[in-house]
Design a protein that fits this description.
The structure holds 2 protein chains of 2 kinds. By secondary structure, chain A is of the alpha/beta class. Chain A is built from 7 helices and 12 strands. Chain A has 2 domains: about 210 residues, HUPs (Rossmann fold); about 30 residues, no CATH class. Helix content of chain A is about 30%, strand content about 25%. Chain A is globular. Chain B is α+β, with helices and mostly antiparallel strands. In chain B, about 60% of the residues lie in helices and about 10% in strands. In chain B, β8 and β9 form a beta hairpin. The longest helix of chain B is centred in the middle third of the chain and has 37 residues. Classes of the chains: A alpha/beta, B alpha+beta.
Chain lengths: ~260, ~750
């Protein structure tokens, strides 16, 4: 099987995120970068599929030079090769352009199945996998927690509120992966040593022939407002204080 | 003291004074004419032979230099420098570097310092071998000073395999992931569930199985092994950084793969090809575990007293009979078989350590096709109920109770102690790493807690009834405690890593002299790493409890377990008392004292370098004073050792070891501070913060690197200003030569 797993490099979940003073983005100083955790499920599922059915796994990532570390991590986990779309024009671009860049790479790879994390934990947009499927003109199943493959088809389970959907799809298709699908493996030491020698193609936007002008732009980024301090109801009479509390809950907080 | 002896002592003292005065005059007044031993001998009215005798260890080198024309020496060095001889080679070949400084030969030292500072080879731009310390739960730290130490001399040979900065980074990341996500969650669970013996079968805590599998699957058991046998050839320096993470996460767990690795190393070094194929590879895969079986109920520190016996069988194998106690990872269910290296005496062999052989004794016999056969009559008598490391099975093992325990000889007969020492030396370094691991974890917890726990107004707002309580990290006493802990942890880390680095260098050495030098550092510092890091590690754990206050004493909080787990490190692998004897009785005098000399030389080189940096000048002075005090004490020991006071060095071996540990830690911290200072200046220059304390502090708040480097310098300076000044006093105290512990009758010890 020819399998593609898309990965994005994101700040570590425990990194302290600071917004730049001009609101144009986050301050990247001192941040530890990791593979998007939802993408890890995708890489793991791709590797398991390969181990069961044979074939190879290609890792594709769009991101600045440092994203190479994340590609190498996936290669150390066991993928065969990588493609790194690295172009300053694509730094901090929007979901559509990212998907277009991925699509341009993936078209040439002719895969049977493509994995994307259901969303990235940095911007939480959750669109890239779907747009990618639309550009490639192939089916998609999003937020998958269980995947089976038989007779050239996949059967995927997707949780919805109070139930779960069982969806069948033909191949090729895009699967976006959700927590619960599997437990991603750690890269082994031999894997790390081998990863250094695995091929990674580096391409820019021009080579892929894609438009770099994003369709959506981040106008401004602001940290969430500070939480207002709590209110202490003063007074000596418990009954009066209770009445005041009820009034505030009804009139100010509007919760009762 | 009898009359004649007293007179002899007095005479000796006088001779010593005359010699020292002569030497002092010659060296420190920089008399430029050639100086010879004969001249000193004449001045001291002694024979040349007596002078040579006096100049042992450190003094021996003096004597060598005395024979040289000092001007010629300077010319020689300048010539080598002019001919652009490579820096590394120069420093390696030319041990006079240190000696020149050591003897106060400032001219020689100036020439060499200039060279070192101006040489391009010594400008280290390799920024990448750096990892910044973060919170324990997300943390990794490789002491930059050490990595740079290698880079500095262009000597950071990486064994067979290629370790780029990127690879190092990835491996540390994976080690951290494994430590934090897989091993750390078993820390308290393993303590509560502990290893158990049910119906004669031993079980490791259930939660250990999964991390054990992951550890083996990740290839970590093979990390430092040669690529030829499927390993990764990882330098020990990097391995130490990984081990610190694993040990911090759960040391009781790490003892299972750790002992297996150690036992496999014995077979690797001394086993036949057949034994390697039969046992070693399965051990390195983690399928089979291992132990080291030395201790017996009647033979602990005195291994020579062991009673386990080996009877020759007609097939060339041996019947093993005896009982071994306190066997770590002695029996468990993590692996399908356990391979015990067992010390025993072949029937008829002499008593004492010289008659001991070592045998491979499997828990289950191994058939020719490699599959498991019947049980080998190794019966677990009990598991100890211990103060800590509950997750590890400490077993009493009965070999051959039913006469059916078969072992095969490992290496030659009666070479058991020599072979086991390979494992013991490694194990001692690992125990040092254990102390460090607990200390690192306890420190990180304490820092986190101190930042979160809100209690008491700050002292400057005590009178303000409305002043809010603050996080306890704002209270001076807590800050001082934390900085004491940090300085010791970072210093111990650097010391342990440096010794690992020396082992790497020993393997990479190209000449026998070079190898001997690195090996000498390892020999000398192995007992120091073991004893100092276990004792100070325990202190750090204890202070962590202090930071928590009463909560620290409660089992719901993690720090009391570190204290319990850490204590064993002072006791096993040779108690710290034994380590001190090893240092003072064997290691100091090894190579005629050259190993200690080399170490002192390294320290004085760092002192000189730090003295050229304004911000570190006064701390470098502290280090130099501490260094002088230790050199003096070492000479005193040598002197005592030759006379009637020979019990004094033995009695004071442990304080000596702790003093030397403090000196080495102070040195390593200084080395780190020198590097940090250079880094900081570069960052300050870029940010326009030179010379402005306020700007530099502000920078530290936003830039983690700046905070890290500032922390390095402050920890080094705190240690230099508060710990090192006590060293001279502690040396003097020993030199007073109080003999009360020796002279006191046993009867008087009772109260």
């Amino acid at each position: 099987m020819n399998i593609v797993a898309c990965v994005k490099q994101v700040p570590d979940t425990e990194a302290l995120i600071k917004v730049k003073p001009d609101g144009s983005g986050i301050d990247e100083g001192g941040i530890k970068w990791v593979m998007n955790p939802y993408d890890e499920y995708g890489v793991e599922e791709a590797l398991r599929l390969k181990e069961a059915k044979g074939g190879e796994v290609t890792i594709v990532s769009v991101g600045p030079a440092r994203a190479m570390e994340t590609i190498r991590t996936a290669l150390a986990m066991g993928a065969e090769k990588g493609v790194h779309v690295s172009d300053p024009l694509l730094d901090n671009t929007d979901a559509y352009t990212t998907a277009a860049a991925l699509a341009a790479v993936i078209k040439g790879l002719n895969p049977d199945i493509i994995f994307c994390g259901q969303r990235a934990i940095d911007d939480d947009s959750g669109q890239v996998g779907s747009i990618l499927a639309a550009i490639l003109g192939i089916p998609q199943v999003t937020i998958v927690t269980k995947l089976e493959m038989a007779d050239g088809k996949i059967k995927a389970i997707k949780p919805i509120e109070g139930a779960q959907l069982v969806i069948e799809s033909t191949l090729p298709c895009v699967i976006t992966t959700q927590k619960g699908l599997n437990e991603p493996r750690y890269a082994s030491l031999p894997g790390i040593m081998k990863a250094k020698k695995k091929p990674v193609d580096v391409k820019n936007a021009a080579a892929l022939g894609i438009a770099t002008e994003p369709k959506a732009k981040v106008a401004k980024m602001t940290p969430p407002p500070d939480r207002a301090p709590g209110k202490i109801i003063a007074g000596d009479d418990p009954a009066a204080k209770a009445a005041e509390l009820v009034r505030l809950l009804r009139e100010e907080a509007k919760v009762i | 003291m009898s009359g004649p002896r007293k007179r002899r002592e007095k005479e000796k003292e006088q001779r010593k004074k005359v010699i020292l005065n002569a030497a002092r005059k010659l060296f420190f007044k920089k008399e430029s004419h050639p100086v010879t031993v004969s001249k000193i001998a004449k001045k001291a009215q002694l024979s040349k032979g007596a002078i040579y005798l006096y100049f042992t260890s450190k003094e021996e080198i003096c004597a060598q230099i005395l024979l040289n024309d000092i001007e010629k020496l300077h010319k020689e060095v300048s010539g080598m420098i002019d001919s652009n001889k490579n820096a590394t080679q120069l420093l390696r070949d030319f041990s006079y570097t240190y000696i020149g400084f050591f003897l106060g030969d400032t001219e020689l030292f100036r020439i060499l310092m200039n060279f070192m500072l101006n040489n391009n080879n010594l400008n280290f731009s390799d920024d990448t071998n750096r990892r910044v310390i973060q919170e324990m739960n997300r943390a990794i730290s490789v002491t930059e000073g050490i990595l740079r130490y290698g880079a500095e001399r262009g000597e950071f040979h990486l064994r067979e395999a290629d370790y780029s900065a990127e690879t190092v980074e990835m491996m540390l990341n994976e080690a951290e992931k494994l430590a934090v996500e897989a091993i750390l969650p078993t820390y308290d669970v393993g303590d509560k569930d502990h290893a158990q013996l049910k119906d004669g079968k031993a079980y490791a805590p259930k939660c250990f199985h999964e991390p054990y599998r992951k550890f083996c699957e990740g290839g970590w058991l093979m990390a430092t092994k040669s690529p030829e046998i499927g390993g990764q050839g990882m330098p020990l320096l990097l391995w130490s950084a990984c081990m610190e993470l694993f040990n911090s996460a759960n040391f009781a767990f790490m003892m299972y793969p750790g002992l297996g690795l150690g036992a496999a190393a014995l077979i690797d070094n001394y086993g036949t090809e057949e034994q390697k194929n039969k046992y070693m590879f399965k051990m390195l895969e983690g399928k089979w575990g291992g132990t080291m079986c030395l201790t017996e109920p009647g033979a602990g520190s005195d291994v020579g007293a062991l009673r386990t016996s080996a009877k020759r069988r007609p097939d060339g194998l041996f019947d093993i009979i005896g009982t071994k106690s306190f066997i770590s990872s002695g029996d468990h269910d993590l692996t399908e078989n356990i391979i015990h290296p067992v010390l025993a005496r072949i029937e008829g062999d002499p008593l004492g350590t010289g008659g001991i052989s070592i045998f491979i004794v499997p828990k289950y016999r191994v058939k020719d096709d490699g599959s498991l056969g019947v049980a080998n009559d190794v019966v677990t008598g009990n598991l100890e109920h211990k103060m800590g490391i509950h997750g590890n099975a400490t077993a009493t093992l009965n070999f051959g109770d039913n006469g059916k325990c078969i072992g095969e000889l490992l290496g030659p007969e009666r070479a058991g102690m020599k072979i086991m020492f390979l494992l013991m030396n490694e194990a001692r370094l690992e125990v040092g790493m254990q102390g460090l691991g607990h200390a690192t974890a306890a420190l990180e917890h304490a820092i986190q807690y101190a930042k979160e726990r809100i209690q008491s107004k700050p002292v400057w707002a005590m009178r303000d009834p409305n002043a809010p309580a603050v996080p306890i990290i704002q209270h001076p006493d807590v800050r001082r405690t934390l900085l004491w802990m940090k300085a010791h942890v970072e210093g111990m880390r650097a010391m342990n890593y440096w010794v690992s680095y020396c082992i790497d260098m020993e393997h990479a050495a190209k000449t026998p002299q070079e190898r001997a030098k690195w090996e000498g550092f390892v020999e000398l510092l192995t007992p120091v790493c073991k004893a100092y890091c276990s004792d100070k590690g325990f202190d750090v754990c204890s202070f962590a409890i202090d930071v928590y206050g009463g909560y620290g004493y409660i089992q719901e909080y993690p720090v009391e377990q570190y204290l319990r787990d850490c204590k064993i490190a002072s006791l096993y692998e040779g108690t710290n008392g034994i380590q001190a004897l090893d240092l003072v009785g064997r290691k100091l005098g090894m190579n005629k004292g050259q190993n200690a000399m080399n170490l002192f030389g390294e320290i004085s080189a760092t002192v000189a370098k730090a003295k050229t940096i304004d911000t570190l000048k006064s701390q470098a002075q502290r280090l130099e004073e501490a260094y002088n005090a230790m050199v003096g004490l070492t000479m005193q020991f040598a002197d005592w050792g030759k006379g009637s006071s020979f019990l004094l060095p033995i009695m004071n071996a442990r304080p000596y070891l702790m003093n030397l540990g403090d000196l080495v830690v102070g040195w390593q911290l200084m080395q780190g501070a020198v590097v940090a200072e250079e880094k900081l200046q570069a960052i300050y220059a870029k940010a326009g913060a030179e010379g402005s304390k306020a700007k530099q502090r502000a920078l530290a708040r936003e830039n983690k690197d700046v905070a890290f480097y500032q922390g390095k310098i402050l920890a080094a300076s705190y240690f230099a200003d508060t710990v090192l000044p006590t060293l001279a006093g502690r040396c003097t105290a020993i030199q007073l030569g109080n003999k009360a512990p020796i002279e006191m009758l046993e009867e008087s010890f009772t109260i």
